[in-house]
Design a protein that fits this description.
By secondary structure, this protein is α/β, with parallel strands linked by helices. The protein has three domains: 82 residues, no CATH class; 193 residues, Rossmann fold (3-Layer(aba) Sandwich); 96 residues, ANL, C-terminal domain (GMP Synthetase, Chain A, domain 3). The chain contains 14 helices and 23 strands. It has a seven-stranded mixed beta sheet with strand order 8-7-9-10-11-12-13, with helices on both faces. A hairpin with a 5-residue loop joins strand 17 and strand 18. Helix 4 crosses helix 6 and helix 7 packs across helix 8. The mean pLDDT is 95. The chain binds adenosine monophosphate (AMP). The site of adenosine monophosphate (AMP) has 18 residues, from strand 11, strand 17 and strand 18.
Length: 452
């Protein structure tokens, strides 16, 4: 209809929600009843929002709230038809904000063209293999790259799309998968860990599922094996980004892969896969020189293609855009046939259950505590959330503070899921030659801190 759909993560800290909505100049806010308390808390600071529309019928609307519009009331007087405008294909269609390493989140704008091309690119068997008989269950929020584009790919292919709502625990998911006979699941590893544990606990097997697309964080070996051996489902390891609409690479069930002995195949599935048609990849060193595709050399991963953003919305930071390529902030290897494997991350961020936590933002907040001289946040492996933040603190001379003091202070400024899992007081912190925090040895030292 010519509007731009902007999906927001309601679990962000209210100040971030306000900043994002104002930066995007959102005009009409559509919300579930569940999120009314959040809306009430931020409404007076939303500078561009004209109306708040509650996605509920009249009976469910809260009493005495003239400031809200009921969704069904909004629809009722309208005709059943609509004169669709003829838009240029490069008109904006939707947007998502992604949390950067520092500063404010960055807006990525998708056009009609990029959305359609991306959806087309995801359908075929060399990508996510979505067709008219697919029953797709994305356990991915709409604010995370529009549920990885599945609303578009499902509509385009005639597939059935099943949305999980708030019940993302193992039991609910199992009922939904079984009840709807889902064939294709999509989500981050944390979600599937919950499902697999639940299925183990009741000794149940999923029968309908053929493929499980895992992305957002690296798929662990045990998960690849569990889906295959216990549920006859192939884990399609995929990689992408908000800036990429999101799909970049997939590691699907090729004939070559299926012919391998199982353990060897599982190991290969740890790689994030080959670029889908339309996406180009290359790796470069710090001088910008392209590195060989030999499966060993690793460097900065750059991408190019028709559904990859060319800039951030109302943001003049061009540092990630190099000669028509986008620098992903990931560090990867590429082999002779272009199979990509992520080996590290240059961006200083933590990914917990599929959502970003900015270590730099956390550090800046922690040093605001009067007893704190220096703060360092590192992401360390966690059995459920993949990665969680640890806060290392050097206290000012003569000052004292407890873990609880520091967490209470930090907690005033952050979303709950950003809360560090532990606070460790240290005498000093390692630095690089240029004076930056040197996090590599710390990540090694604390690698098992939360693994139980
Ligand atoms: P987002 O924009 O929130 O989707 O995050 C994109 C980033 O998540 C990538 O740049 C990677 O750092 C990380 N990521 C996504 N998929 C994978 C994967 N399969 N394995 C490892 N990291 C991943």
């Amino acid at each position: 209809m010519g509007a731009v759909l902007h999906t927001i993560n309601p679990r962000l800290f209210p100040e971030q929600v306000i900043w994002i909505a104002n930066h995007a100049e959102d005009r009409f806010l559509f919300v579930d009843l569940t999120f009314l308390p959040l809306v009430d808390a931020v409404r007076s600071q939303l500078t561009s929002v004209e109306k708040v529309i509650v996605l509920a019928d009249k009976a469910a609307m809260p009493a005495g709230r003239d400031d809200l519009v009921c969704y069904e009331d909004l629809l009722a007087p309208e005709a059943g038809s609509f004169a669709w405008p003829a838009l240029d294909e490069r008109t904006a269609a939707s947007m998502c904000y992604t949390s950067g390493t520092t500063g404010h989140p960055k807006g990525v704008l998708y056009t009609h063209r990029s959305t359609v091309l991306h959806a087309l690119g995801t359908l075929h068997s060399g990508a996510l293999d979505i067709g008219r008989d697919s029953v797709i269950l994305p356990v991915v929020p709409m604010f995370h790259v529009n549920a990885w584009g599945t609303p578009y790919s499902a509509a385009m292919s005639g597939a059935k799309l099943v949305l999980p709502g708030a019940g993302m625990d193992g039991k609910n998911l199992h009922e939904l998968i079984d009840g709807e006979q889902a064939t294709l699941l999509l989500g981050v590893p944390t979600v599937w860990l919950g499902l697999l544990n639940y299925l183990d606990s009741i000794s149940a097997k999923m029968d309908s599922v053929q493929h499980v697309v895992v992305g957002g964080s690296a798929a662990p070996l045990a998960m690849i094996r569990a889906f295959d051996e216990k549920h006859d489902a192939f884990l399609i390891h995929a990689w992408g980004m908000t800036e990429m609409s999101p799909l970049g690479t997939v590691n699907g069930p090729t004939r070559e892969l299926l012919a391998l002995p199982k353990e060897e195949r599982y190991k290969r599935q740890l790689k994030q896969g080959r670029p889908v048609y339309g996406v180009e990849l290359k790796i470069i060193d710090d001088d910008g020189k392209e590195l060989p595709r030999d499966g060993k050399a690793y460097g900065r991963l750059l991408v190019r293609g028709p559904w990859i953003t060319s800039g951030y919305y109302r943001n003049d930071d061009r540092s990630a855009f190099v000669d028509g390529w986008f620098d992903t902030g990931d560090v990867a290897t590429l082999d002779e046939i272009n199979t990509m494997q992520i080996v590290d991350r240059r961006k200083d961020v933590i990914k917990s259950g599929g959502e970003w936590i900015s270590s730099i933002d956390l550090e800046n907040i922690a040093v605001g505590h009067p007893a704190v001289k220096e703060a360092c946040v590192i992401g360390v492996p966690h059995p459920k959330w993949d990665e969680r933040p640890l806060l290392l603190i050097v206290l000012k001379e003569g000052a004292s503070a407890t873990k609880e003091d520091v967490l209470a202070y930090v907690g005033q400024h952050i979303a709950k899921f950003w809360t560090p899992d532990d606070v460790i007081f240290v005498a000093d912190l390692p630095h690089t030659a240029t004076g930056k925090l040197h996090k590599v040895p710390l990540r090694e030292q604390y690698a098992n801190h939360l693994m139980g």
